[in-house]
Write a structure and sequence with these properties.
Layout (H helix, E strand, L loop, with lengths): L34 E8 L8 H17 L10 H9 L3 E7 L1 H8 L4 E4 L4 E4 L3 E2 L5 H4 L23 E4 L7 H18 L2 H9 L5 E4 L5 H5 L5 E3 L11 E6 L6
Parallel strand pairs: 1-2, 6-7
Antiparallel strand pairs: 1-4, 1-5, 3-4, 6-9, 8-9
Length: 248
């Protein structure tokens, strides 16, 4: 195409300017070794998850990985997380079912569940160094739908607003939702991070009202501008991370 209750030591917050991990132009981050955060969504043929549930679960999976004690300080995944965050913040979502899902579950990582969706997130790996049981999984062609339109988002809770004018595969949209959640995490003060984590990272993912989208992208909230590696044009605004604590 991606809950540990302990208190994490937050990683240094990367600067969004001038070298954001999501800016389309080359920057210093491109000179660093490139890593990717793998996410695998479980899609059984007979019972695929709804699209919105998959997007929300992937975003929460990224947050759970960022907050996990193994990802910070001297944790076993901390070096990989630092190397990943020093370069481009790439996320790739693959799909699995049956034996593929069981093999993926045997690798070090964290499985996060939504209403029906299941997403397993793994510590970052080199761009060209995926474990074989993940590398063999399909990345393209994942199509998910919502059987019914999702209910309106709770304005008192975090919302990841998706660009209503962009067509993205489910895997691409899941990665973008993860980017948005990560930008919100980076910008929150420590007490707000802890409160969000302790509540289980509640959030919604919704398509923005087209009339409201321009205001969302210019209102001071974190905005994901895609680097254009897949599917959409470089510089496209894909997600606005609307966390109540970040509203101006």
């Amino acid at each position: 195409m991606s809950n540990d209750p302990t208190t994490p030591v937050p990683a240094p917050v990367p600067s969004a300017v001038p070298d954001s991990p999501f800016r389309p132009e080359p920057g210093d981050r491109d000179l660093a070794p490139q890593f990717v955060l793998p996410l695998v969504v479980r899609i059984e043929r007979a019972a695929p998850p709804p699209r919105t549930d998959a997007l929300e679960t992937a975003a929460r999976a990224v947050l759970v990985m960022l907050a996990d004690e193994r990802s910070t300080g001297d944790g076993e995944w901390a070096r990989a997380m630092r190397d990943w965050q020093d370069a481009r913040i790439r996320k790739v979502v693959r799909r699995a079912r049956g034996a593929e899902w069981r093999r993926a579950g045997a690798l070090p990582g964290i499985t996060v569940t939504g209403k029906t969706a299941e997403v397993r997130v793994f510590p970052p790996v080199p761009l060209d160094g995926w474990p074989k049981d993940l590398a063999r999984l399909q990345v393209s062609g994942t199509d998910l739908d919502d059987p019914e339109p999702p209910v309106g988002a709770d304005p008192a809770a975090p919302v990841l607003w998706m660009n209503p004018g962009l067509e993205m595969s489910a895997g691409k949209a899941m990665a973008q939702a993860g980017h948005g959640a990560q930008l919100a995490w980076w910008e929150l003060p420590d007490d707000e991070r802890a409160a969000w984590r302790d509540a289980g990272f509640p959030l919604s993912v919704r398509a923005a009202d087209p009339a409201r989208w321009p205001g969302l992208t210019t209102g001071g909230l974190p905005v994901v501008r895609d680097a254009g590696f897949t599917e959409i044009a470089p510089g496209s605004c894909t997600v606005v991370a609307d966390h109540p604590a970040l509203r101006r």
